Amino acid sequence: MDSAASDWQSKIAAAQAGDREALGEIFRVLRNSLQGMANGQMDAQLQVKVSTSDIVQETLIEAYRGLGTFKGTSRGELLAWLHGILTHRILTANRRFRGAAKRNLDCERSLTRSEGSQSLPVLAHELSSPSQHAAANEELAQLEVALRQLPARQEQVIRLRNELRLSFAEIAEMLDCSTDAAQKLWSRAISQLARKLNAHAKDRG
């Protein structure tokens, strides 16, 4: 095994063991490759609706969540695994923007991604009646709709911070900005989200 392959094997093993610095370095190195794949797979019509950078970011978030399911040890195996996730994200975008043109796009994202978020509206973990379950589901739906209405970068920083519970330093690495910029972006995003939720509550009232 050459030194480059050995180095990749070590980085992947470290990332799988929970070393976030190693994972961040892997993501930085492979981001351009994923960007090229997205550019090659997404036609111009779809890119008008969703940017390739957003697809790559979604891919990396999903990879972060599911790293425990990756069983390979080499750069090639990791890139193939990431390519599979990327392809799935592109197919999802195609269905969202082409296969359901008459549906409300804000309601299409899975509601489960909002569960357990910090600094967002808190739902009871134990609900005793169907009406309470319905109210909780409605609140999740409203939250997800509001998140989808935010600019892509604001939605991403909230999901990275509140769902994945990354530090601002880790978010800065993933978004390619400074730690201070990541924190300010998150603060603005939370404020914007709160305004949207309040406006929705007033409309219903």
Runs in which pLDDT lies below 50 for 5 or more consecutive residues are: 101-130
The major pleated sheet works out as: none
| Helical content class | over 70%
User: Structural class, judged by helices and strands?
Assistant: mainly alpha
Shape: globular
Q: What does this protein look like?
A:
- The protein is mainly α.
Quick structural overview:
The chain is an all-alpha fold. Helix content is 71%, strand content 0%. The protein has helices spanning 3-16, 20-41, 44-49, 52-65, 75-97, 130-149, 152-163, 168-175, 179-204.
Give the helices and strands, then pairings.
Layout: H1 3-16, H2 20-41, H3 44-49, H4 52-65, H5 75-97, H6 130-149, H7 152-163, H8 168-175, H9 179-204
Helix pairs in contact: 1-2, 2-4, 2-5, 4-5, 4-7, 6-9, 7-9, 8-9
Search tags:
205 residues; mainly alpha; 9 helices; 71% helix; globular
